[in-house]
Specification:
The protein is mostly helical and about 500 residues long. It folds into two domains: about 10-190 and about 355-490, no CATH class; about 210-330, no CATH class. Helices cover about 70% and strands about 5% of the residues. Helix 5 (about 85-100) packs parallel to helix 7 (about 150-165) and helix 6 (about 120-140) packs antiparallel against helix 19. About 40% of the residues are buried.
Length: about 500
Amino acid sequence: MASSSKRNKEQSILRNLDWFTLFIFVALVAMGWMSVCGASYDFEQGSQLLDFSSRSGMQMVWIVTSLMLGALILCVDDRLVESLSYIIYIAFLALLFVTPMLAHDIKGSLSWIKIGSFSIQPAEFAKFATALCVAKVISSFSLDLSRWRDLIICSVLVLLPMGLIIMQKETGSALVYLAFFLMFYREGMAGSILFAGAAAVFYFVVGVRYAEVPLWEIPQISTGEFLVLAAIHIFSSCMMWVYTSLRKPFLQVLLFGMGAYILAVLYAKYLIPFNASWVLWIVVAATISYLLYLAVRKQLWSYALIALFAIGSTGFFYSVNYVLNDVLQPHQQTRIRVLLGLEDDPKGAGYNVIQAKIAIGSGGLKGKGFLNGTQTKLKYVPEQDTDFIFCTIGEEQGFVGSALVLVLFLVFILRLMHLAERQPLRFGRIFGYCVLSIFLFHVFINVGMVLGLTPVIGIPLPFFSYGGSSLWGFTILLFVFLRIDAARNRLQH
């Protein structure tokens, strides 16, 4: 009887398993292995693709073990995984805490623990633990992320492992945890918070990139400072339009500020050159004061929050130089300056990106063919089988192959969104969006940094980059979600 029940359960899992997503996973893994082969194959040594002493052979080991791991996860009761969420999270927090004490220094990073002849990176698995815990907390306590208290609780759950990973000198891996805020937005977090994050990126990029560029050939005015302060004023004014019902104050603030900016620049250009920044400071300060006045007079705290946004924006902008020059590591500073076009470092920080672009460009429309990439064979790109593996795809498979990979990732992410939305319980939906957000962040940033569109922060391309930790970590994330999705019919009935 027991064996019959077990057999029926297995049949139910197989019947309800989303085979389409599984097919995409297998296709991506297969293409990833071919890319690792192309990036690591050495014609001079004549290595065999399945030689376990080669990277292609070891990647096949990781692939086989990840498939076995996925199959094992499908056999585990989804309720057991959910019930152990807190324990798994605490265990990985403890592991992240002790990792710097146990890890070997690898290129300045203290994130790898050596076990025999293998090394694992706990940060790759902590993403799964964090996703489980966040999903469990939000669903169990019916948290409403539109409330600040509940949002702070969930943010702490994300920031704790993020901070521990930063202590390991793995800033890139830590930044991945910002992807959880996409899930927060889906679950009710105010869109203004995402907007504030996007605004911060704008302030940083524009402020740094144009800090030394005179505005309209007026040496006393910095283009970067002018544009950022003007943006703070305009953003604050537009938030008044969006988040309050009073239209007159919006027009007053916007027109007053824009008029002051135009007059100040024209005066400095054609009459007496002077540093017009103080005019912008006055305008921003006046805007903040006016917002606080409205908040008190009309008892509308939306104005106070907008004023807080303006204050925070101003403080953030004037801290950018300190963060860039005194907080970030020298190699991180150089990477940002190269990305923004402030420095040329073709033999240093910019070398990988330049060579990656050359490799991708040399592939043309159809590519040079499997194992025929000259840029990759001659090892021009140092990290061509890990962080920069997309350049191998571009060189060997060309535009067609690269586009196919990106389309496949797009279909994969859209499918995960579909699976998340059809979950009958909030826990499954939240965990699904956590998985989706992590994959989306990895793909966007990894491909972007290879193309020179985003900073080089050293994160792998899912299912493609060489390494067991990343492949196992992504496999666990995906298959736990597939197991949860396979149980949806039981929950619906």
